[in-house]
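Newbie here. two chains, one complex. Structure please?
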Amino acid sequence: MVTSGRGWRGYALLGPAMAAMLLFFAAAMVVLLLLAFQRVEEGQVMSGLTGANLVRFASNRYYWGVIGTSMKLGAVTVVISALVGYPVALAIDRIRGTTVRGLALFLLFSPLLTSVIVRSYGWELMLGDHGVINTILLDLHILARPLRILFEFSGVTVAMVHILLPFMVLPILGVLSQMNPSLVEAAQDLGASRLQVFLRILLPLTIQGVVVGCQLVFALSISAFATPTLLGGGRVQVLAGLIYNDVGQLDWPLAAVESYALLVLALATVLVFNRLLRLTARPA
Amino acid sequence: MKRKITRRDALALGGAALGSAVLAACGGGGLGSSGGGSGKKNPVNVRMFVFLGGNLGVMPKAFAKEYMAAHPNVTIDIYEDSNLVGYPKMVAAKRTTPDQPFVNLGFFNAQTSVLGDTDDMWNALDYSAMPNSKDIAPALRRDNKKGIGIGADQVGILYNPSVIPSAPTSWADVWDPKYAGKLSLFDYWWYVVFAAAKLNGGGLTNMDPGWSLWRSHAKQIRALVSSNPQWQDILSNGTSSITSCFNGTGLQFKKNGAPVAYSVPKEGAIPIPVYLQSVKGNTKDQQEVCQDIINEMISPKWCAQWAETSIEAPANVKSQLSAELSGLPAFSKATIEKLLPIDWTIPAKNNTEWRQKWDQNIKANI
């Protein structure tokens, strides 16, 4: 039980973060909310409130298409990251040597040590019509003409998975490291197959790590800007790109509406994943 | 301001380049020759907006260095960005801190200049106190005196001669199906929509034929780029072999090793004037210095240097250009006679609507 003294100490520790959130996030969101209801005439933001920006956004199929692309990018990135990230987490967890484990973690997190712009240009070199992948496939006569990966949804997805994989692996690794290894050994001793061990022991015990990883990867994917912009070639339009364009076009009220749409999507996702977390929580 | 650049104006402007057969800048325009900041004792700091990319920062930086040496009380900070990205920041600063502008002066293209007129962004310049202004081609002097021209670029077609051996000669080549999947454009490159409208019975005041054509030809586009380095990259690595581009930017790509050549469409290239503007909200001292700086930058010497590094026609009729530059197709008499006149108030006024049409009709369908 938490004593009142401890409670106050908790609030005091939370204080700076709460103050920063209120000052820099909540206040900005209030300003953004007011902006969303301001009129625009010939590119000028006018005084007076209106719901026209909201209607303009909600009634246009184009914006729904962009929301759809953002959600699709988030979903595909999550699925691939989970499928790739889980075995990676298992492998790293089984490494006993400190040096090798450190090296594996360094390699995993290395994408985060470079600028997103540099990474994206690196992917351009890899995925381009005359890039490394196409050159190898053409030289080996596997392809007759270059695969179109760059400036396509597939290229953006590959780059997103590369960048966001650590956010999937880390939570799973955290859960794995707390798991009692004798549980797996006991199951194996009792004759369980590898698939049974995975489905009945590993997965149920690590599902919370997977859900947290999915939550992080999805939230970061749907708000990604640089990678879809640089590698999408205009073909992969996401909400963050739309906001950037409208700010540039000085249509700030519409950009404010789009920002709130992104926020609502992110919050809805967090709620869904939180619900999943509760459903998958093990009884005490 | 409703002024258009007519063919006659453009011809007069191009004449300056055509008449320049000798490399080397002409004399005159020594810094500190006019009043402005030279006699001021108060320290004055100004921030200058300079285009980002290629060699566009070379002349402004060289100028700033020389100007500060001649005026020890003046410091010039350089802010490098595209007008597209930097101008909204200027608007934001004007709305929040009108007496502290984001930049104090700078280089702005025609469309941003007109947007600035609408936003009341610029200070009027006192042309009578700027001795070099009398040598600026009439087409690049502004009726409202809110800024003055330093040069003019043009938009035409850039292509890879090793992939496309015979040069594209018409705007229609840009949307020719034989180049499907090989066309790259800068994001929101409304010039090709205008060209399509022009070739199909429309124009700046009736862009519908252009929007309609590009809606059905959107698949032609391989990629929309968002920066000059990215543009140069995909033209260099063979992902794209044709684009519509500024002559100056394209030739800078070429200088950097990109396998590209510039072609002037037979229907005419699109002239793109570049202006120098002083921003509202400057202090009296800053305004005086800004006007002096602008006067110095439009001198024959600095105007020629700007033209050489940005590969543009110089605004100062006394500027002399290298034979290499004046011999370029973009500066030929025939090209200048055919430039398509643009009333820049129209793109500025329709900026938001056109951008939405670009996104929804073209970008969404590529």
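Moderator note: DSSP finds 14 helices and ten strands in chain B. Residues 83-96 of chain B form the longest helix (14 residues). Thread marked as resolved.
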